[in-house]
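Handout, section 3.2

Students often ask what a structure token actually looks like in practice. Rather than define it abstractly, here is a full record for DUS4. The first block is the sequence as you would receive it.
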Amino acid sequence: MLILIKHLTEFGKEMIIKKLIVWLAFRKLVRQYECDLAFTPMIISDSFIKSLKARDSDFTTCKEDRPLIVQFAAKNGKEFADAAEIVVPYSDGVDLNCGCPQRWAMAEGYGACLIKKPELVKDMVNQAKSRVNNEDFTVSIKIRIHNDIRETVDMCQKAEKADSLQCPVIANGDINSLEDVQRIAELTGVNGVMAARGILQNPAMYSGYDNTPLDCVQKWLDISTSLGTHYRCFHNHLIYMLERVLPRAERRIFNALVSSSAVMDYLKEHLGI
């Protein structure tokens, strides 16, 4: 899936939101609910470099959409560095995806297959850092834990020597509430916690809400309308947001709606929005 960071003063950590299916409109929404750092979906660097159409399709931002990390899938250092160079003016860092387990990605040399190639990852990080030449621009890696934890430690140490992480470590997975954030932060001692699916269901989760508040739904309507969000994306996000708000029978009705006007009419009639 897609990501973001917030300082947790209660336990001195940071919170992040991650989400592959979410683009600018959703990032603007979660930033209103104590999500301080967002990651883009995984972008294929080769297409991004070569095609203006791919860049326009995969990467949209605005001046309020900061801080922002752009996540790339790349298979060599030049490719990763070229992509990083393009987004420097519009972001605060790049992230190399070394964790995607999808078969197509691994077959192409992307994602989780890279965790078995620590020297290649080190070179990719080095090339990106050298090309960007900006101390404030971050280069990070997203990894999976190896079956042998010693391999994970070795990979992280190599990346650290390439100045990828000065040991901020972010935990990701099964974050569905603020209580989960606190539990994982205290259990692992990580520097930050990242959420994806939990944020889909409740974009206001980092602000302590157990379910999506109606004012969050209203803000989504306003933001998505102002940005001209495609109906499918607009509706799908509402389906997630209202999953724990609407009774099952009502969810079936809402999920079957086929137009923005039908959605607006339903929300006005049933939720007073």
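Discussion prompt for tutorial groups: The chain is about 45% helix and 15% strand. How would you have guessed this from the sequence alone?
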